[in-house]
Amino acid sequence: MPAGTLYRGREGMWSWVAHRVTGVLIFFFLFVHVLDTALVRVSPQDYDKVVATYKNPVVNLLEYGLVAAILFHALNGLRVIAVDFWSKGPKYQRQMLWSVVGIWIVLMAGAFYPVLQHSLRILFGS
Amino acid sequence: MSTATVDNNHSAALDAAESTDAHLITVTLRVRRYNPEVSDQASWVDYKLEMDPKERVLDALHKIKWEIDGTLTFRRSCAHGICGSDAMRINGRNRLACKTLLKDINPEKPITVEPIKGLAVLKDLVVDMEPFFQAYRDVMPFLITKGNEPTRERLQSSEDRERFDDTTKCILCAACTSSCPVFWNDGQYFGPAAIVNAHRFIFDSRDEAAEQRLEILNDRDGVWRCRTTFNCTDACPRGIEVTKAIQEVKRALITRRF
Amino acid sequence: MQIHKYDTVIVGAGGAGMRAAIEATKRSRTAVLTKLYPTRSHTGAAQGGMAAALANVEDDNWEWHTFDTIKGGDYLVDQDAAEILAKEAIDAVLDLEKMGLPFNRTPEGRIDQRRFGGHTRNHGEAAVRRSCYAADRTGHMILQTLYQNCVKEGVEFFNEFYVLDLLLTEVDGVKHTAGVVAYELATGEIHVFHAKAVIFASGGNGKFFKVTSNAHTLTGDGQAAAFRRGLPLEDMEFFQFHPTGIWRMGILLTEGARGEGGILRNKDGERFMEKYAPVMKDLASRDVVSRAIYTEIREGRGCGPEGDHVYLDLTHLPPEQLDAKLPDITEFARTYLGIEPYTDPVPIQPTAHYAMGGIPTNVQGEVLSDNTTVVPGLYAAGEVACVSVHGANRLGTNSLLDINVFGRRSGIAAAEYASTHDFVELPEDPEAQVIEMVESMRDATGNEKVTDIRKALQETMDTNAMVFRTEQTLKQAVEDIAELKRRFQRVSVQDKGKRYNTDLLEAIELGNLLDLAEVLAVSALARKESRGGHYREDFPNRDDVNFMRHTMAYREVGDDGTETIRLDYKPVVQTRYQPMERKY
Amino acid sequence: MSADTPVDAVELTSTSGASAFSPDNPAPVIEPPRARTKRTPRATRTNFELYGWLFMRLSGIVLVVLVLGHLLIQLVLDGGVSKIGFAFVAGRWANPFWQLWDLTMLWLAMLHGANGLRTVINDYAERDATRSWLKALLYTATAFTVLLGTLVIFTFDPNIQ
Ligand SMILES: Cc1cc2nc3c(=O)[nH]c(=O)nc-3n(C[C@H](O)[C@H](O)[C@H](O)COP(=O)(O)OP(=O)(O)OC[C@H]3O[C@@H](n4cnc5c(N)ncnc54)[C@H](O)[C@@H]3O)c2cc1C
Ligand code: HEM
Ligand code: SF4
Ligand code: F3S
Ligand code: FES
């Protein structure tokens, strides 16, 4: 059965999709992250080995992605809370979303060098 | 003041509205059709029509039904957005066919028309509305009062009346509920329309059963499932601030608890 | 085919049907059959309000209301019925309020009231605030409130069931009600409802006009079914043309707009109603205003490139007032015309609006088979009926009142009848006529299309039987309709299926419209006078000597199967008010 | 199919025999995944969903501080990710403040995430059985992770080996 078209929701729907996707992503990351951190309890060498892979440029880039996900989820989470508890929230949800996106872009630009400096140094030297 | 010059004062909008030469354009309506008496497959069918852009999507559907293919099936009655019969998905969004003018939805490209989502499709654009009305009936959408009836009307201040004005406008068209991603998932969620109609009574100063309605909506498939996606608010043809109403119900539930 | 048995069956779930259902369900086992989901009924389109002399904002009483109703109806009103209407109006409104209807409120918290055309203080002295309203959504609120209370009472609905036939069984030479036959849209199945009492509340039949405020579904199915079964139709020539429909579309802009201070202007910007009704001006009765508009148009003072409309000017009213009191109609102007009513006048033209005539009933809602005889067990209420409280012209806000007062009365009367009487037997092959109707339509292979015939019908009705009528135009209409009926014999539908075959139902509805249009034209042709909504240019005056009487139209089938319409007349009930000239 | 042909295309009395369906033998309607039925509100009369919802917001607010602070320290300040290693962790957890910080973050984030995932499962799992299994898996994984993390923080030994 060929499905119908995709529902053309607006800001509210897409922000929710993104919120959900990032939320699930973060959860799975957190799960793995606790496991790897648990290695400190077992063997410092192994822990350092795992952490070393984090320093690999590709994983470092993924980390940047993770920051992006967490930042968006956090900022949009605050927007959702504002929609929930501020009586004018629903009215300004759209403006708030664009603010979230704006802040998110600024913060991600700001985090670009600090988060990726390690890889940048490896790749391009310093 | 005098409007004696009314005819010379025409705004461009009025001139446009009054222009009589219909500029017919060719529009393509891409309708998602399903007739279980012919096939168990739904399919897209294109219809090319000569239409005035000021006409409604409903007019285009009528043109198909009356002049091209009488088997095309959809519900409609009032044709001006007050009976709630013809909610459908036009260009991917829920709207009333009778309130959507062709010119407002880019008639240059094919206009897709399909049934609303999350309810069983019975034929073409007709869906089974029973689950929708069931959810509505489940929130006790009627005034409940205790004690003896007054002889005259119950008094209510204008402010108290205003408190729930927005949600009295609902025409039960289901555009909201069938635009809600949570509802599509499993159809168990009460859905925005039922909550809107509960809201209408919860915040009516004359009503005395807010507790019971809140209790119903406090449940697993009640208000807490709303993820504030605002599709309902965007879809509502009556301009009801649906999400806001849902949030007010949530807050009422919380303040009731604490 | 399925057979169901209920004490009371109600046909239609608009205001009248649901008001009746609330009463009948409490007293008898009741089923409501409706071709639309209840909340889709056209009662929801009503905007302006519901009249009742509550005297909440200024001095008023039900006698003045009675007088206005009678005068508004150009004295063709049955005065005993009008008295009941006005008297019970007060409780009808209060009942709705208690059921939860969110009326607009006065500063003291009472139900607010506003002015409406034809409603006056002390027998015509000045306009009075009598219309109880909820913004410009009064009908919507009534429909919702009644549906809510039906849910509360657990009323049993059969949604999307089209009633196509009325079953009458002769017992001791008298026709008794035996039930109805319905077509289930979802499955195409025929259902026979065996009932002790039947209430028709199936609404109006305005769809035979092109420019109309009526819904696509207002096709007079109830009137037509009764008529086919030999029952008369009363006063069908009286059709109301509402002055302010959106130009060409017919979508209604409530009289409340003029009640709030809106003004009608011609192309010179002149407030032309001052000429036609010096006292009431824009708020004169609807027939007067509609004729005035067409007179302006005919005399070359219409607006727009083709001079075929006038303006409803709201621009001098504060936007806040429009938002608070007329939110919906201003939105209609924006949506459908792209016009901002704050700053631009709205193009309007009279639109076919309301059928004053219908199935004749007495004040209990009992249907009459001639001038006096009641059909046991058969009731009618709402726009389908003619109690005659509206006479030759209905006053604005009196119809929402009518459906509540007489809906309630017929609901009670029918249920009481059902609880004190036994079922009469169903006639033999009760479903035969409907099966024949449906199957012959489904199997037909003729070359005529429903849409062509419907268009032609609407065209001839708009041209020949609208606001201005003459012998010649009406004869033309009768001829055209006869020809269309012949063409209708050859009509065929494309959809041959069973499920949701709306193609088939539209054809059947067209058949009903053709029958009723013919009754309208024939009745109008015979009424050689002008009265209320019926205006004959060749007989511009009211003629109380010859025509102070109701028209009763019967369908007669000759031995050779030819159908004719026989006209008879019924006296008007006059109690207190002697006919006077009607001036506003 | 264009407008010229649709009539034939949907002709119900088509004799081609191509379709197995007819007015008397119609195909099933297109159902949504699960339909609401008359028995559906089975009232549970608890405030579980309410508390869950509230918890999501409250934990969210706290998490903003904890998680963003954590990210700041781990990834941004002091050379970013380069500095991280056993020694760095050891240094941090020597301070009870950071122990508490990480512990709270762990619990809140896991519960917040798990509750979030519970909603996601409720939304998308179509059959009741699938739902139960997925949720069981989720709860087990969550409990395991939370307990493991707690254990690690409390029993951390900088002088391991
Ligand atoms: C635009 C507009 C505005 C109006 N404004 C006002 C106003 O302000 N004040 C006022 O007093 N009046 C007003 N009126 C008039 C008034 O609203 C109507 O006359 C009144 O609502 C009619 O109610 P009803 O219950 O008789 O019929 P409807 O509400 O039309 O209901 C008819 C019912 O019958 C059912 N039905 C029809 N045919 C069949 C069938 N074959 N089988 C089964 N069921 C069937 C339909 O499903 C429907 O449920 C207005 C009318 C219009 C059109
Ligand atoms: C950083 C601060 C965070 C804030 C402010 C925050 C806020 C929120 C809020 C308010 C919701 C509810 C959304 C709704 O009901 O529509 C939510 C949902 C969710 N959150 Fe977070 N959150 C944060 C961190 C996290 C973390 C660390 C995780 C992962 C472990 C996470 C995973 C989830 C998941 C899976 C959902 C469910 C999404 C859904 O149902 O659509 N969140 N978050
Ligand atoms: S809230 Fe709006 S969209 Fe939803 S049913 Fe009511 S009118 Fe339709
Ligand atoms: S679309 Fe659904 S998720 Fe909430 S805001 Fe509306 S009910
Ligand atoms: S037809 Fe009534 S809402 Fe569109």
Automatic annotation (TrEMBL), chain A:
Its cofactor is heme. SUPFAM superfamilies: Fumarate reductase respiratory complex transmembrane subunits. It is found in: Membrane. Keywords: Heme, Iron, Membrane, Metal-binding, Transmembrane, Transmembrane helix. The chain crosses the membrane at residues 21-44, 64-85, 97-116. Its main location: membrane. The keyword Iron applies. It comes from the Bacteria. Gene3D superfamilies: Fumarate reductase/succinate dehydrogenase, transmembrane subunit. The keyword Iron applies. Belongs to the cytochrome b560 family. This is Succinate dehydrogenase, cytochrome b556 subunit.
UniProtKB/TrEMBL annotation, chain B:
The lineage of its organism: Bacteria, Bacillati, Actinomycetota, Actinomycetes, Kitasatosporales. This is Succinate dehydrogenase iron-sulfur subunit. Belongs to the succinate dehydrogenase/fumarate reductase iron-sulfur protein family. It catalyses: a quinone + succinate = fumarate + a quinol. Residues 160-182 form the 4Fe-4S ferredoxin-type domain. Keywords: 2Fe-2S, 3Fe-4S, 4Fe-4S, Iron, Iron-sulfur, Metal-binding, Oxidoreductase, Tricarboxylic acid cycle. Binds 1 [4Fe-4S] cluster. Binds 1 [3Fe-4S] cluster. Its EC number is 1.3.5.1.
Automatic annotation (TrEMBL), chain C:
The keyword Coiled coil applies. Its EC number is 1.3.5.1. It is found in: Membrane. Residues 454-584 form the Fumarate reductase/succinate dehydrogenase flavoprotein-like C-terminal domain. It comes from the Bacteria. Residues 467-494 form a coiled coil. Pathway: Carbohydrate metabolism; tricarboxylic acid cycle; fumarate from succinate (bacterial route): step 1/1. This is Succinate dehydrogenase flavoprotein subunit. It comes from Streptantibioticus parmotrematis.
UniProtKB/TrEMBL annotation, chain D:
Its main location: membrane. Keywords: Heme, Iron, Membrane, Metal-binding, Transmembrane, Transmembrane helix. SUPFAM superfamilies: Fumarate reductase respiratory complex transmembrane subunits (SSF81343). Residues 16-38 are annotated as: Disordered. It comes from the Bacteria. It is found in: Membrane. Gene3D superfamilies: Fumarate reductase/succinate dehydrogenase, transmembrane subunit (1.20.1300.10). The chain crosses the membrane at residues 54-77, 97-115, 136-156. This is Succinate dehydrogenase hydrophobic membrane anchor subunit.
